[in-house]
Amino acid sequence: MTLKLFNTQGRTLGEFRPIKKGEVGLYSCGPTVYWYQHIGNLRTYIFNDILKRVLTYDGFKVKHVMNVTDVGHLTSDADEGEDKMEKAAAKEGKKAEDIANFYLSVFREDFKKLNITEPTVWCKATEHIKEQIELIQKLEKKGFTYKTEDGIYFDTSKFEDYGKLALLNIEGLESGKRIDAGEKKNKTDFALWKFSNKDEKRQQEWKSPWGTGFPGWHIECSAMSSKYLGEQFDIHTGGEDHIPVHHTNEIAQSECAFGKKPWVKYWLHGAFLTFKGDKISKSKGGLYTISELEKLGYEPLAYRYLCLLTHYRKPLDFSLESLDAARTAYDRLKAKIIDMKKDEFSRKTPTEFKQQFMRAIDEDLNMPKAIGILWDVLNDDLLGNKQKLELCYDFDKVFGLGLKDVKEEKVDVPKEVKELVDKRNEAKKKKDFALADKLRNEIKAKGYGLLDSKEGTKVKKI
Ligand code: AMP
Ligand code: ZN
To answer: Residue 4 and residue 14: Cα distance in Å, rounded?
Structure first.
């Protein structure tokens, strides 16, 4: 079977062929660690994780590198405004380094809660200043840079493929250049190194051949990916918002510095999590974090399950109602696994389902389809529980829903809730569904959820 992936570069779905047989170099743009990552950000990391799990399932050895932006990301992606880390440090009255370490540790906790596998290498921008300076020097020697009053800039007019990834209309952009290009030669030029402002003392600044300052946001990804994956590698991922600026600039500086075309063979981008159709972004005040969802009584893996129900290239509009529905389905799935564990028996061979599953995941990571196949397995009348469980555990190498570890929870149900459950069962028997629904809501208001199955109604704390 061949794995097909959708490449943003060229907008085509094609067979994945790594540079080195059997091995994959994968780089993912990581978090800017000045605040908590919200569930929108985490959708992108779940997508990265699914990609990595599918590659591993298909037998590739994956080296995954993720950067941590702890300097240089300005409040505007266009090299203007304050440094997000410095701003957060001033606001919280702490050292920028402590802020970075704190939010990175929360982020890694979120990874654990969501069953996201850690990258092979984490790399911080502030720990790779030397590599970034060397890369800028390389670009300077080749004549791609110029100096302005506030920094060293990349001259995008010298790279003829500029904007190819994003299908940018450079001429259209150029026409606006006089308005806000400032000292830049072209509107699309971007900072490689920024000088510290003379009137303020920055917490994070370094000496460089051009003056004291700090690296621009984009250069870290080119410098660190080449250090850990080489000057050309297989797959680069990120959220779709990175296409027009960050990734476009990464390509420009890397292809000019390393002379490899293409610098990256496959570009994969995850679509956004939206909220009532609007983009969720940290700068707008953000939405939920995983801990906040936990406080509302949702287990993190129910959110992972919700993400699996929409293909990674389609926007996912978030609501607590859709999360409720995903939680119910996930609970039902776990209850089925528990029931099957109690009665493992074998019947027909499960190969057909496995083939279907492999076809789905190799079709540009089609998780909604793969989840459908999982339910086909569970509802199949001919397979035995033993085969069903084996398939579930096998598929879960990709889903990451922790199915092997699900255990029956012992719930102490208070008497009043038990009585409501009995009343509801009575109502259902009499086909009085309006009353049954009303009772379900009363039970929910007391903090308990119900799961109806062939074996009866299970009560669960929510
Ligand atoms: P940041 O910490 O802002 O650099 O963002 C971290 C990652 O989250 C990047 O890959 C972004 O593209 C991605 N991202 C930001 N907002 C969203 C969203 N609403 N939905 C999905 N991904 C997002
Ligand atoms: Zn990046």
So the answer is: 5
